[in-house]
Design a protein that fits this description.
mainly beta; ten-stranded parallel β-sheet
Length: 288
């Protein structure tokens, strides 16, 4: 692999404040197997067309604060990861107790991102007071069969998301880096250590405007449906020009094609949907 620009490995009690990081050949800032990390007032800039140049990748770390950072990159903006598949399960090092606040992300595949490497689990995450302007997705949670991991206690609040393909994505049919089509079946499969799961997700007081593909999609697995999902006091609007196909909402395989640009819900148990406004879609919700 091309190298990350700055990696913090097996460390603790590290603060980065006021740095500019740019033109990374791969992931830009990569804390790994570390704890008590503070990242604040950073400017991270890579060309929007440069592949895999994520801004911040917090992998298998605990007690991390990301505050008042600006990110403009060629892949995900601020992402949390915990290893992939068998090796990540064996490491058993989750990403946990992470706070992301007052950040701005532009020109990225996702603003605040969880996955797709989720094997050791990701939990106790709060993202608040951020703006995701021009990112392909705003809130982006992505994983699939074979990745493993339990995702839980994830809270996103008071976010402004503008000019995205899709402001809110939970996608357990994430396609990238996989050629085994059996992993994208809509049939219920045996569940095991490599089956991801998600519960206790809150999206509160968030606003998405100018979505070009769809307002939102939340898709679990038939053998591992999303549980205890709450979306409250949120509004989403569809763009009036430069629309993209609905299937560009996220990078998935196996899901049926739809044309409605509302909020897509599939394999999700009894979601709480309160005071949600969707503008510009023929249906507010598509319940599959």
């Amino acid at each position: 692999l091309r190298p990350p620009l700055l990696q913090i490995h097996s460390s603790q009690d590290v603060t980065l404040d006021g740095l500019r990081l740019q033109n990374s050949p791969f992931w830009t800032l990569h804390p790994l197997f570390s704890k008590n990390i503070t990242l604040k007032n950073l400017v991270i800039e890579n060309p929007a067309e440069a592949p895999n140049t994520d801004g911040i990748d917090i992998e298998s770390c605990s007690h991390v604060t990301v505050d008042s950072c600006y990110v403009h990159v060629g892949d995900d903006g601020i992402a949390l990861k915990s290893g992939s598949g068998v090796s990540g399960i064996k490491d058993a090092a989750p990403a946990e107790y992470v706070t992301i606040t007052n950040c701005t992300v532009k020109a990225a595949h996702g603003g605040a991102v969880i996955g797709s490497e989720t094997a050791a689990g990701i939990h106790n995450v709060t993202v608040s007071g951020c703006t995701f302007d021009g990112t392909d997705r705003g809130i982006r949670i992505k994983t699939r069969r074979g990745r493993g991991g339990c995702l839980h206690d994830l809270r996103f609040e008071n976010l402004v998301m503008k000019n995205n393909l899709c402001p809110l994505v939970v996608n357990m049919y994430y396609r990238c880096g996989c050629s085994d089509m059996s992993l994208f079946s809509l049939d219920k499969m045996p569940a095991g250590d490599e089956t991801p799961s998600l519960y206790n997700l809150e999206v509160i007081n968030c606003k998405g405007t100018g979505a070009r593909s769809s307002a939102a999609m939340l898709v679990g697995l038939p053998e591992s449906p999303l549980r205890n999902v709450s979306i409250r006091n949120c509004s989403f609007s569809i763009a009036t020009e430069n629309l993209e196909p609905v299937d560009k909402s996220d990078m998935y395989l196996g899901l049926p094609e739809i044309t409605c640009r509302g909020i897509r819900l599939r394999f999700i148990d009894n979601p709480v949907l309160e005071n949600i406004h969707v503008e510009g879609a023929t249906q507010d919700f598509i319940m599959e």
